[in-house]
Amino acid sequence: MSREDLYPEIPIELGYASEDLSNAELNTKDTRTFNTPSRASITHHMAANNSSPLLVPIGSNFWNIRGDFKIVKLLNVGTHMSVARLSTGKFLIIDGAPTLNNPTLVKELNELTSNGENIEAIIHTHPFHTGSIVTLSNLYPNAAVYGCPRHLKMFPDLKWTGDLSEPTNLARWQPEVDLRIPTGTEFFAPSEHNHFSTIWAYHRDSKTIHVDDTLGYAQTVRFPLSMFLSPGLSFHPMLSRGGIQPRAEAPNEFKTFIQTVMQDWDFDNIATAHMGVMIGNGKRELAALLERTQGELDRLTKKFSKK
Ligand SMILES: [Fe+2]
């Protein structure tokens, strides 16, 4: 059975299930601590054991936090959030993860940010990554908070500062943090199971891209995940199932987005929600992925041209 054949049968978040889960539904009981791994081993550590409760430095002034996210209570594909320190000394928190229920992590976040006083803003980049939005705002109620249009509709009582997808907000932290919505993708009106599109965040100082589901990276994949996931960098499987808008021009627009990112952003690292963080070689691997995906993009162009 091929990887593609398996997707329809597994209600995996990577393709089909929702992440609109309460924290109570997630495995947040892990309070283990570990020493910060060396740069060379971060990827393996995260990919093989994506349950780190701690801030993990990824380059200069940037930290990534791994959390558990289990599909059908068995397959741990992990999830993440990141913290960027700006040149002003203030912090930007990118996304929330169920690890926020771990007191060890909260203690570290508080120490880093002076009990949250130095958190300038919290930004939620993925329309369907919603399980920790309220938790994070409750922890740091004085921080400005920006979300995707779906978030604002889903949590109308939360004190939102703004819609992150608006151009002024996407540009708010430039040039230190550049935020972009992939062109050609279904970001504003995706179906409930289409998690492909998200706002990409580039942190210049650490040469790191933080991206949720559009990209996934795993250095190693163990059974049973190995039945349907391959090691390496990959696009979310919804790319050809609604991730790209059904217009003849859209596949090429998405390709151009990737090419422009590679041209504009000097990045080495790619932090993905599922399953881990690629340390080094990020640009080369993204270029290789785009090349491997050219046939699929061509097929989509052909398909959409017939409509
Ligand atoms: Fe996801």
From TrEMBL:
* Gene3D superfamilies named in the record: Ribonuclease Z/Hydroxyacylglutathione hydrolase-like
Q: Which InterPro entries match?
A: DUF4336, RibonucZ/Hydroxyglut_hydro
Q: What superkingdom heads the lineage?
A: Eukaryota
Specify the protein name. Metallo-beta-lactamase domain-containing protein
